[in-house]
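Limitations
The structure tokens in this dataset are predictions for the assembled complex, not deposited experimental models. Users should treat interface geometry with appropriate caution, especially where small molecules or nucleic acid strands are included. An illustrative entry is reproduced here so readers can see what is and is not provided.
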Amino acid sequence: MLYTASFSKLIEVFQKMPGIGHKSAVRMAYYILSLSDSEAQEVVNAITNAKEKMHYCSVCQNLTETDPCDICSNHKRDKSVICVMEQPKDVIALEKTREYYGLYHVLHGSISPSDGISPEDLKIKELLQRIAGGEIKEVIMANSPSIEGEATAMYISRLLKPFGVKVTRIAYGLPVGGDLEYADQITLVKAIEGRHEI
Amino acid sequence: MLYTASFSKLIEVFQKMPGIGHKSAVRMAYYILSLSDSEAQEVVNAITNAKEKMHYCSVCQNLTETDPCDICSNHKRDKSVICVMEQPKDVIALEKTREYYGLYHVLHGSISPSDGISPEDLKIKELLQRIAGGEIKEVIMANSPSIEGEATAMYISRLLKPFGVKVTRIAYGLPVGGDLEYADQITLVKAIEGRHEI
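Predicted assembly:
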């Protein structure tokens, strides 16, 4: 065995991270060993703290440290519009454009029978409860332009019809099959502007 | 602020790691949040354990969990030859070739006045103590083929002359200016075979 047990384990946990191959994991492990004890403790604390403090907003289900989150509790936001997103990182992508002032709702995934993800696994019930509150005039379905995202948007839009709320779909300015997170900001704005009623 | 404080901090510590840019750090931070509490604890434990258990071998100064390390305490190794290396990862690179059966000595760097690294910052004193023990017949200087590595090899070879020990330099089969860690195994073996007396 070339590496010691504890060093191999460190490489192993890094290698499980997204986009990290063996060489990168080894470099990261050596980096950890090169840190002072207090610097290493800082890394450990950052992980522990984020895990402890971050949770889902009880309203929009986005990741937050406060409850309700900063967006839900911001009086300047338009409380009549909800933009439905797959992931917290999608919220970040749209917030970066500074062109959207409504609220959000994070589903935490898409319906995908092949991956065993059914509607009950997503935060759809929580969305319906918000709509039942009566304040919402429009729901923008900003699911990713993938087969699963499209199907999820259609599924939810059908559930929302009885509430008499306007349901729109983010426009196809996005590259089909792509990942919403990596869309450029102008494309995202165009897609929001070009939304149409389902 | 788009990210919460604890999440920003997590991104920050990942972004300090070698080869990790902002996008990778964000993905890694989301990955941490996606882990179960026990999985996140596994990451934390791996870091803490490696920091606690890994130290320098009192003989060869390589990273180890035991003391002396597995190589120094292996009776099958040739105790008359020491290969001097800059970094623990260089030892791994040579061990992977399975063609070298002697001992090692890790300097933990090269002499580099511009970076403020003087001979006293390296494990040179410890090397001289080993040579003074009298058992060593040959010291192979396997410093990287860089200006600093070459200078360090020459500096140490001059210190070793009074001991009457044979001092050799790993052959230039390695690409000059390159990083020893990334050399392919055949090149490394050729370089060991083609070593010459300084």
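Some entries come with short summary sentences. For this one: Chain B touches chain A through 46 residues (CB under 8 Å).
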